Each structure stands twice: as C-alpha cells, then as structure tokens.
Amino acid sequence: xxxxxxxxxxxxxxxxxxxxxxxxxxxxxxxxxxxxxxxxxxxxxxxxxxxxxxxxxxxxxxxxxxxxxx
Length: 70
Fold this sequence. Notes:
The chain has one helix spanning 32-45; strands at residues 2-7, 10-18, 49-56, 59-66. The two termini are 27 Å apart. The protein is 20% helix and 44% strand. The chain is of the alpha+beta class. Strands 1-2-4-3 form a four-stranded antiparallel sheet, covered by helices on one side.
C-alpha cells in the first residue's frame, strides 16, 4: 500500500508492506539499500527530508517527507 500527500511545500510518501514471517530476522540483513538511499537523499535534499522506517505489528512502514519543495 502506498500513500502520497502533497501539502503546500511538502511531499509525504508512505509505504506499508506486510512482514514475511518466513524471512530471516531483521538483524540478519546488512542494510546496504537503506544506507545507499540515505546517502542519496543527503546529497539531493540535505536537511530538507525526513526518512523513517518502522515495524508496526505485522507491517513495515517507510515514510519519506520532502520539505520546502519549490
């Protein structure tokens, strides 16, 4: 499930994905994709973004907010 919201000068993009109980534990993953994404966001948006990734019940929830868009 994806949600996109644009209000004034801010874009919010939220992705919900069900956890797969047959996959390995989160600590088994190396996280290269997340680190690469954060590096790219830092290069492009500097301090004008916020990225959060959480687990809520049986869902992964990733939320990206881009601020001060013109």
